[in-house]
Amino acid sequence: MENNQQNNEIILPGEKVKIRYALLDELRGFLVLCMVIYHGLLSVYNILGLKTADTLFDFFTPAVPFFAGAFIMLSGMMCGYSHSNILRGLKCTALAIVVSVVTILGAEFMGRIDIRFGILHLLGFSMTFCGLFDFAFKKINKWAGVITAFALFIVLYGVPNDYTDFVGIRNIIPAEWYLKDNLFPFGITAPGFFSADYFPIIPWFFLFLTGYFLFKFHFAEKYSNFFIPKRIKPLGFLGRHALIIYILHQPVIYLICIPFTFN
């Protein structure tokens, strides 16, 4: 059975029929839509100063880790459909670097929009890492992989944020590490660090890895009658073009908002 991650398709042996799991596209599309709305509210407030947008942004902020976490876990599951996670990871990393450069330069003109280590950086690293060590991960029992990866995510969740340190992990991290400027990819940030979109390797890689092991359960194949039918086509479209939407949504939002600043 041949896998095609980009198109989320399964090509059956000896057949030319391609099976697409539409539900996965639609779930990804819904999560991308949530991201666009959330970032849109922040941009509208930053550019236009609309207080209502800021209020809605604050209202939805507590839900962001759940939606972002679902997207990251789903991305990990999709690794199972890829021919080359290393290549995909390197491409994603290259795009992430471009986003960082553009947003850091753009921050001089449009406020603090710089992205030092966002979700693209995380996905690029995670895809590449899983691609490089796929030979080892294949030997790990799926139950052991899911339980261990998710447990590490919970344990390490407080590394970037002491107010969500459920198990006191920050107490065993040397305090001087949080004074260094070069550990931010791992969730260890110096005072004054800022990234408009911040998903460090610790703890989020382990949620990606949870999804990576969840793929081994082959839910889509076992319950294909549930996963194949198209239900909400617009969400499916967003899901199939999630990467390009992520890259373009902020510039588009700014282009829409800027004309309203001339009054």
Key features?
263 residues, mainly alpha, three-stranded antiparallel beta sheet, 12 helices, 3 strands, 60% helix
Describe the structure.
- The chain is mainly alpha-helical.
- The protein has one domain (2-261).
- It is 60% helix and 3% strand.
- It has a three-stranded antiparallel beta sheet with strand order 1-2-3, with no helix packed on it.
- A hairpin with a 4-residue loop joins strand 1 (2-4) and strand 2.
- Helix 1 (22-48) crosses helix 11 (233-240), helix 4 (85-110) runs antiparallel to helix 5 (119-132) and helix 5 (119-132) crosses helix 8.
- The N and C termini lie far apart (60 Å).
- The model is unreliable at 11-16 (pLDDT under 50).
- What's the helical proportion of residues? 55-70%
What is the C-alpha radius of gyration, as a whole number of Å?
Answer: 19 Å
Distance between the termini: 60 Å
Order of helices and strands: EEEHHHHHHHHHHHH
Strand order of the main beta sheet, please?
1-2-3
| Count of helix runs | 12
Largest sheet: 3 strands, antiparallel
Q: What number of domains?
A: 1
Number of strands: 3
Anisotropy-based shape? globular
Structural class: mainly alpha
Unreliable spans are 11-16
Tell me, rounded to a whole number, the average pLDDT.
87
Strand proportion: under 5%
Summarize the structure.
With 263 residues, the protein is mostly helical. The protein contains twelve helices and three strands, in the order βββαααααααααααα.
Secondary-structure topology with pairs:
Elements: E1 2-4, E2 9-11, E3 18-20, H1 22-48, H2 51-60, H3 64-78, H4 85-110, H5 119-132, H6 134-137, H7 142-156, H8 201-214, H9 219-222, H10 224-227, H11 233-240, H12 242-257
Antiparallel strand pairs: 1-2, 2-3
Helix pairs in contact: 1-2, 1-3, 1-11, 1-12, 3-8, 4-5, 5-8, 7-8
